[in-house]
Automatic annotation (TrEMBL):
InterPro entries: NAD(P)-bd_dom_sf (IPR036291), NADPH_pterin_aldehyde_rdct (IPR053241), Sc_DH/Rdtase_CS (IPR020904), SDR_fam (IPR002347). This is SDR family oxidoreductase. SUPFAM superfamilies: NAD(P)-binding Rossmann-fold domains (SSF51735). It is an enzyme of class 1 (oxidoreductase). Belongs to the short-chain dehydrogenases/reductases (SDR) family. Its EC number is 1.-.-.-. Keywords: Oxidoreductase.
């Protein structure tokens, strides 16, 4: 596999996904990304420029994700790294105040979205080798009050990855990996409005995260419970 293999990332229109996409592209990797907002997809497409693929789609739509996988191979080649990053959260509230439709939406994006990515892209990795990474959360390992839906979703992702890691052959690795420290994104502002600004921004975080994905994670055994190292800040 080329050292500049294609990288697939869901949810690239903002936050951590966008920052990782730009950083991988800066390092010479063709990036295949997706997002739900056509306007934001167009913006990311313009920033990345030629040699990349950014599609407008919802990761809970399995047919759209399969078509995206086929387009990725056709335009960029087989990926060496697939990152299921797209996520959803809601403002903190007691679980009895969370409408079932909202609970279902959080579960769909965070859990079903990981499975649609696995279903579409993992067969490509089985052929050529590589890594599949589901972005998790510390709240998927330690429950967070007033965020029961998000906590449940990320606990599910951790368990799902643990099972899938036992199914794949040795030339494929599967991880659930969470930021060691929170990242100042729109999602964090939604659930931690008073303190989100005290954490590193996504561009700062992505430099350390992408380096970890490229150079450290491939040497670790598959499974959940992994963490992106916190960025080292300059004093």
């Amino acid at each position: 596999m080329s050292s500049r293999y294609p990288v697939v990332i869901s949810g690239v229109t903002k936050g951590m996904g966008r920052a990782m996409a730009l950083r991988f592209a800066e390092l010479g990797h063709p990036v295949s990304g997706c997002g739900r907002s056509a306007d934001r997809v167009a913006q990311v497409r313009d920033v990345l420029g030629p040699g990349h693929l950014v599609e407008t789609l919802d990761v809970t739509d399995a047919g759209s994700v399969r078509r995206w996988a086929r387009a990725t191979v056709s335009e960029l080649g087989a990926p060496g790294l697939v990152i299921a990053n797209a996520g959803a959260v809601h403002a903190q509230r007691p679980v009895w105040e969370v409408e079932p439709a909202l609970f279902a939406e959080v579960m769909r994006v965070n859990v079903d979205g990981v499975h649609t990515m696995t279903h579409a892209f993992l067969p490509l990795l089985l052929t050529s080798g590589g890594m599949f990474v589901a972005v998790s959360s510390g709240w998927g390992r330690n429950p967070r009050h007033h965020l029961a839906a998000y906590t449940a979703a990320k606990f599910a992702v951790e368990g799902y990855v643990g099972a899938v890691a036992q199914e794949v052959p040795p030339h494929v690795k599967v991880f659930a990996i969470a930021p060691d420290s929170a990242v100042d994104t729109d999602m964090l502002a939604t659930c931690l409005p008073e303190e989100h600004h005290t954490y590193p921004g996504p561009d700062e975080w992505a430099r350390t995260a992408v380096d970890h994905l490229l150079h450290d994670l491939p040497h670790e055994p598959s499974g959940g419970g992994r963490s992106f190292p916190a960025p080292t800040r300059q004093i």
